[in-house]
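[READ THE FOLD]
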Amino acid sequence: MEHLPLPKPPKSCVFRLVPNSQVHVSKANNASEVYDLEGAYWEFELELANVREDEALALDAFLAKLRGRVGKFLMHDYRRPQNSLTAAGYVNGSNQDGNLFNVRGMPVNQTYAPAGTRIQIGLGETAELKVLTEDVVVNSHGHAQLVFESPVRSIPGDSTPVYFNRPYGVFRLADNKQGLADAQVKDGLVTSWKIKGREAF
């Protein structure tokens, strides 16, 4: 599976985790009942600016190969590359589920990553993108607990890698109308082109 082949870093990139909570409001007395459902997903909207037309055409061809919302691609949050977080951890033990994992192999005796950091659990088409909700505090043995949202959709095996550097997720286009047709072009440059996607699972 390929990464979305952007010709340059985007001018803007909005990455958002969308919970699947629902609220039912009674028509009789306006009392509300909230349902915390599974199925939270990431969505993104990026904007490219001042891209050469030949480079834009190459990206448009990639989007065409996706056939709208059929194909999938890999994507990370360009605002948060987390380039300094080069170490990876590994799931420590089998049958870990939910939103709290034990990991091993981390740099010892430190707070390695703060809450709000993105992480990637697994590789390729099975990768899941998460956001830490607590700091990662590593003990003298390189062990730590990861607390994150949203809960995993599939249980990873022991030794599944957990990445902090440029963590990606699996996405598809937000609809069947993404492409160069709506971009603004002037003097051989694509001056503004917005692309939207949603996590695929």
User: Anything to note?
Assistant: The chain has a mean pLDDT of 96.
